[in-house]
Amino acid sequence: MSGCVTIVGLGPGRVDWCTPAVQERIASATDLVGYDRYLDLVGQSTNAMRHGSDNRVEAERARHALDLAEAGGRVVVVSSGDPGIFAMASAVLEQLDQFPDRWSDVAVEVLPGITAAQALASRVGAPLGHDFCVISLSDVLKPWAVIEQRLAAAAGADFVIALYNPRSRHRPYQFADAMAVIGRCRSLTTPVVVGRNVGRPDESVRVVNLATLDPETVDMSTVVVVGSSTTRVLQRPAGSSVYTPRTYPG
Amino acid sequence: MSGCVTIVGLGPGRVDWCTPAVQERIASATDLVGYDRYLDLVGQSTNAMRHGSDNRVEAERARHALDLAEAGGRVVVVSSGDPGIFAMASAVLEQLDQFPDRWSDVAVEVLPGITAAQALASRVGAPLGHDFCVISLSDVLKPWAVIEQRLAAAAGADFVIALYNPRSRHRPYQFADAMAVIGRCRSLTTPVVVGRNVGRPDESVRVVNLATLDPETVDMSTVVVVGSSTTRVLQRPAGSSVYTPRTYPG
Q1: Measured between CB atoms, does B1 come within 8 Å of chain A?
Q2: B34 touches chain A (CB under 8 A)
Q3: Pairing with A4, which of A29, A141, A195, B167 sits 20 to 30 Å away (CA)?
Q4: Could you give the CA distance from residue A79 to residue A10 in angstroms, rounded to a whole number?
């Protein structure tokens, strides 16, 4: 009898931000499949076999999980954040789409998690309190021209913009280009929230603006939220709060 | 001594989709403040005093929560979904912004939750697997022209689009107008996922497309996800799966 693949999101890394539904699936799994670093974030003891792999082998990892389930396993594919947002859920469905005659008896389920933009937003207040976009700046799987077009559209229509995978060692200059595209439609005083490893022990969260944002503080472990024209910064005793009002003028 | 206000998100309604961090804050609260219907979703017993209110009094509710905290309470403001996404976190920060000399000793914290678009996406696969926008169609707090401009920008740049507050009794016709704006840039076969009360006992999730979408099936308890040009539907034994590939052509 075939088993099942459940693709789960741990949230940003803090055990108490991982939903009980996800914790239950992990507890009853026969196999945990994932990027080594995310398997390390599983905060509970389990008897499951762990199948760790490198970051850049999503397709192979998805097929491996489906094969384990076809052999009868209760397989859990572990993502950080939300598995449906730039993560493993699409990778598993892509394999099912590509090989329609394989794994047809395997049940597939997705369980959501808190994604990095939500975690970062909560740390400073509510910068995502109004219409927003979520964009990955990685051009490994899409052309940079598409990214620039989306940034321009999002900035032009005054969305708050959350940026994933903002800057890597292999593409250190595109982040500044992206900020320049946004800057064509936004004031230099627009609030920008930069979060690194949010929800982990070495979390760092900074509130800057388009003028003072230093690309060197941004890497692949960072999420960046650029405010809209209405996003505001409050100075409170505990630090800066950032929010986007629910009301839009006009 | 002043207390604190924690604005929490229960997630979509299922107790096991509510994070332990949120459950812990609710358990130790002296006061729970929120829209009556959301207070009813609190799935745990607590000794806190409950201060329920109507849906349309966010500003008063926020001031009430801050006043209770100023008097020393450990106050939890309860939202469904994520409190930072079209919910109470911005409403509380708006009050702090408007009255800078009040409540300065009150600590304010936000704890994220699974928002409706994530819950809906997980039910069908991974339609939010690539760049996406989240837009409220309510024109109570922003002009309809801004909404149309954002829909056109998002559709033109081929974002997946998640729509909150899509259609109410007071504005029954705008939803079809919104779909028409999107339809100018999208094929009629574009997948659309319609979810009502996702995560609750009476959950309903349907996969349709721009041609077969019936506005009558959409109301204020519904979230709608409109795919991009690359979003795909798979027919599987358990039903339709929808995902947006991580790769974008070009």
Answers
A1: no
A2: no
A3: A141
A4: 6
A17/B contact by beta carbon, under 8 A: yes
Classified as helix, coil or strand, B36 is helix
The answer to whether B90 contacts A135, with C-beta atoms less than 8 Å apart, is: no
CA B220 – CA B109 distance, rounded (Å): 28
Average pLDDT rounded to a whole number, residues A63-70? 98
The answer to whether the CB atoms of B119 and A135 lie below 8 A apart is no
Q: What is the pLDDT of residues A236-248, one digit of tens each?
A: 988 999 999 999 9
**Tens-place pLDDT, residues A29-49:** 999 999 998 998 897 789 999
* Rounded distance between C-alpha atoms, residue B248 and residue B191, angstroms: 17
Interface check A188 vs B, CB under 8 A: no
- pTM for this one? 0.97
Q: Say whether B17 and A16 touch across the interface (CB within 8 A).
A: no
CB burial string B211-224: b at 16+ within 10 A, e below = eebebeebeeebbb
The model's pLDDT over A104-132, given as tens digits with 9 standing for 90+, comes to 999 999 999 999 999 999 999 999 999 99
What are B230's two structure tokens?
């690359």
DSSP characters for A199-240? TSTT-EEEEEETTT--GGG--TTEEEEE--TT-EEEEETTEE
pLDDT in the model for residue B44: 79
Question: What are the angstrom distances between the C-alpha of B121 and each of A190, B72, B230?
Answer: 31, 40, 16
- Residue ranges, chain B, pLDDT below 70: none
